[in-house]
């Protein structure tokens, strides 16, 4: 679940995702993985990606 916070002029969402260490040979949830981090920055009044259903995201611009 993302962590949301506000700064003057924008809203941020920090995302942490667990991904397989080797995408060529994924060994399921018990295999080695790493956690990657990403920050989403949007204008106030816009929705962050995780708060909008996936099917609606491509329609926004």
Describe the secondary-structure layout.
Layout: E1 3-7, E2 10-20, E3 33-42, H1 54-57
Antiparallel strand pairs: 1-2, 2-3
Describe it.
The radius of gyration is 15 Å and the shape is rod-shaped. It has a 3-stranded antiparallel sheet with strand order 1-2-3, with no helix packed on it. With 61 residues, the protein is mainly β. It contains 1 helix and 3 strands. The two termini are 24 Å apart. It has a domain at 3-22 and 33-54.
Main β sheet profile: 3 strands, antiparallel
Radius of gyration: 15 Å
The helix tally amounts to 1
Structural class, please?
mainly beta
Low-pLDDT parts are 52-61
> Overall pLDDT, averaged?
77
DSSP E strands, number: 3
- How much of the sequence lies in strands comes to 35-45%
Helix content: under 10%
Shape: rod-shaped
Distance between the termini: 24 Å
Give short descriptive properties of this protein.
rod-shaped, 61 residues, mainly beta, 3-stranded antiparallel beta sheet
């Amino acid at each position: 679940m993302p962590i949301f916070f506000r700064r003057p002029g924008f809203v941020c969402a920090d995302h942490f995702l667990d991904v397989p260490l080797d995408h060529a040979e994924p060994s399921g949830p018990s295999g080695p993985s790493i956690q990657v981090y990403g920050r989403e920055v949007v204008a106030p009044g816009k929705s962050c990606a995780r708060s909008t259903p996936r099917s609606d995201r491509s329609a926004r611009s």
